[in-house]
Amino acid sequence: MGFVAVEGGSFEMGSTEGRVNERSVREVTLSGFEMAKTPVTQAQWEAVMGTNPSVSDRGMGPSHPVNRVSWYDAIANGYRLPTEAEWEYAARGAMRAEGTSMRGATMWGRLRGTAGTAIGARIR
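Request: output the structure for the sequence above.
Response:
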């Protein structure tokens, strides 16, 4: 599974439109992190975790993205789910130059080069 390094930076997170819980615009600063180039497939998830939590109403099969995964489910072998801020930062363009696909599916993340990082993060 390939990862893309996302350099840290600051951005305006949130929106002035959309759902009420997204309307609070605030500046967020992130340290660098890595994100999988593609969504995690059911086959990849099962190879790491030993089970497949996906349900059939969202697509089943080894090449389909895994679904029904919580933050705590994802912590394994140094992987974790990206935070909401990391996901939004990457989705807004921090990864576009790398040709990644981020269509709303589960993706692994790893923090880069920092000590005292979130549980499950892989330190490089």
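The two ends are 16 Å apart (CA to CA).
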